[in-house]
Amino acid sequence: MDNWILKGVRNLVKEDMVTTPVSPTQVKVKVTHLLISNFDALLYSGDVAAEYPKTIGRFAVGIVTEVGEKCYGVEKGARVYLESVRSCNACYACKSGKSENCTDVQIAGRDFDGFMRDFVVCEYTEVAPLPDSVDNMHALCIETVGIAENIYDKLNLSAGQRVAVVGSDFTGNIIAQVLQFHKVIPIVIDNNPNNLEKARKCDIYYSYPADDDLLNNVLDATSGELCDAAIYSAGSRLPLSVACRLVGKKKSLVLTGFASMNCSMDARDILEKDLTVFGVTGAYRYTDAVINLLLHGAVNIDFFDKEVITEFDPVAILKDRSENIATANRGKMIVLKMIL
Ligand SMILES: [Zn+2]
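Above: inputs. Below: predicted complex with zinc ion.
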């Protein structure tokens, strides 16, 4: 039984794992599929710091193999999504019994042990049973769809409003689709022609490269009004100023994504337009809402590049991804199929 532990920067080692017996409120899960994310690559390279040692791996699904006697709604043999974020149990909200308002949400692979291992023993509330019609590939997108839904909620948008989505890699594409599901009209901007093509295949009507015509294209798409909000995906590698330029006065600019954000923005853009700027990087407590969205076909991932690997070397995969994070096909879903 394998357990991939990050012991320090670029120091990922495989160890035999020891599993503990389940307590009455715990389940034991055989991890079957793990999505390699940019977040894992940034942890590996040290761009995102973890408290070592930590098992790496943020997004996974598995099969329940043992259930404690006080677990509800989870049965042995059930296919489940492993929650990639948990409350901290230490902040004021958590200690007051209001963990839903946790101010220090913990992320798998960074703050608690992640899922690149054969078995996970956790509380039954930390897994979400998956309906048959939500396949493993869609389930591995749950957190990203949750981030999109979280952004939609925070922006308080109404039907027909126009929102610029800067960067249409994996995250940006999903955000655009979720907005569209809510009848908000996304305007996707990316300099990668493949990403623009994928957006079109997912029925996104407005998709443009960030070239000299961009502002005029967006003015046309918004009847001269500019966008009601802009969402900047950190993986896009486009300047943040692109997002500032496309949004109207007194509107919001949201920053999101898992890439390390080393871009800067001009304060003048924010001041002159009186913009509200905030970040969304998580989707704590969104899993049930997302599964419902997926059941309603809100997100089409048919056109994403996917690779499912049974024989793998996580060190080589993470090394490659972290070294090529600026140029790699970030929309590609690399999934480890974990067989005992
Ligand atoms: Zn907390």
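Residues 88 and 104 are 6 Å apart (CA to CA).
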